[in-house]
Amino acid sequence: MINQSKTSDTHFCFESSNTSCPKYIYSTAVRASLYILLGAVIIMTVFGNLLVIITIAQMKQLHTPTNFLVLSLAVADFLLGAMVMPPSMVRSLETCWYLGNVFCRIHSSTDVMLCCASILNLLLISIDRYYAVCQPLHYHTRVTNCVTVIMILTFWSLSAFILFGMMLFNMSTRNAEDIYRNSFQCEGSCSVLQSRMSSVISSVLGFFTPALVIIVLYLKILVIARRQACSIQRGFPLHSTSVKATHIFISELIDVACQL
């Protein structure tokens, strides 16, 4: 795409540059519709999570371990909606990146860290629900506000560590990245060259491993919930600890849904 000939039928991100990326122009109706749709999604993401943050932060009766985890997840999603999604929307619809190489790196790095933080918070919520249902007698002694805050800070630090690890591994490919930028990358694109090692490590630590643990934990919760539902249908007494835990779990889910 470098030094490509310009014709009257071809549009480019920077018409005055010989190294500009080609630009695809959507029709006015399609572009306006997509801007309205994606803009509405961004607004709902930002203000919906902001409402959760304000509600939990201001109401002391909501300062419970589960709600702290919901608060941490809302912060991650709020930052994604406010910092990552708007530039991504413009890049997708304009098919060009006009914010410069420095902000491209900042945007890509922030995207990776916040996505990792979001899925790690989902992992914390699944662990919290597992203890509430499967070990109800030890839940209130093991899962306290202090322990929850420490775990939240640890997982946010892990997200930053994954990002730092990616940057560290990518330093070894800096020469290759410079060659790629000078020879192949056109002006108006936003792409970050990653080494294979950094891609594998970030994918495994930031997505596949947490997703696998979340699936296993919720399958375990589902098995116990179905077992207790069968016990209820067969007429067993409801005073057993595991049955009470199931009822507590269901009521807490309803409370969280009402808060959201």
From TrEMBL:
<feature type="transmembrane region" description="Helical">
    <location>
        <begin position="146"/>
        <end position="169"/>
    </location>
</feature>
<feature type="transmembrane region" description="Helical">
    <location>
        <begin position="106"/>
        <end position="125"/>
    </location>
</feature>
<keyword id="KW-0472">Membrane</keyword>
<dbReference type="GO" id="GO:0005886">
    <property type="term" value="C:plasma membrane"/>
</dbReference>
<keyword id="KW-1133">Transmembrane helix</keyword>
<keyword id="KW-1003">Cell membrane</keyword>
<dbReference type="Pfam" id="PF00001">
    <property type="entry name" value="7tm_1"/>
</dbReference>
<dbReference type="InterPro" id="IPR050569">
    <property type="entry name" value="TAAR"/>
</dbReference>
<feature type="transmembrane region" description="Helical">
    <location>
        <begin position="68"/>
        <end position="86"/>
    </location>
</feature>
<keyword id="KW-0812">Transmembrane</keyword>
<feature type="transmembrane region" description="Helical">
    <location>
        <begin position="32"/>
        <end position="56"/>
    </location>
</feature>
<dbReference type="InterPro" id="IPR000276">
    <property type="entry name" value="GPCR_Rhodpsn"/>
</dbReference>
<comment type="similarity">
    <text>Belongs to the G-protein coupled receptor 1 family.</text>
</comment>
<feature type="transmembrane region" description="Helical">
    <location>
        <begin position="200"/>
        <end position="219"/>
    </location>
</feature>
<dbReference type="InterPro" id="IPR017452">
    <property type="entry name" value="GPCR_Rhodpsn_7TM"/>
</dbReference>
<feature type="domain" description="G-protein coupled receptors family 1 profile">
    <location>
        <begin position="48"/>
        <end position="260"/>
    </location>
</feature>
<keyword id="KW-0297">G-protein coupled receptor</keyword>
<protein>
    <recommendedName>
        <fullName>G-protein coupled receptors family 1 profile domain-containing protein</fullName>
    </recommendedName>
</protein>
<keyword id="KW-0675">Receptor</keyword>
<dbReference type="GO" id="GO:0001594">
    <property type="term" value="F:trace-amine receptor activity"/>
</dbReference>
<keyword id="KW-0807">Transducer</keyword>
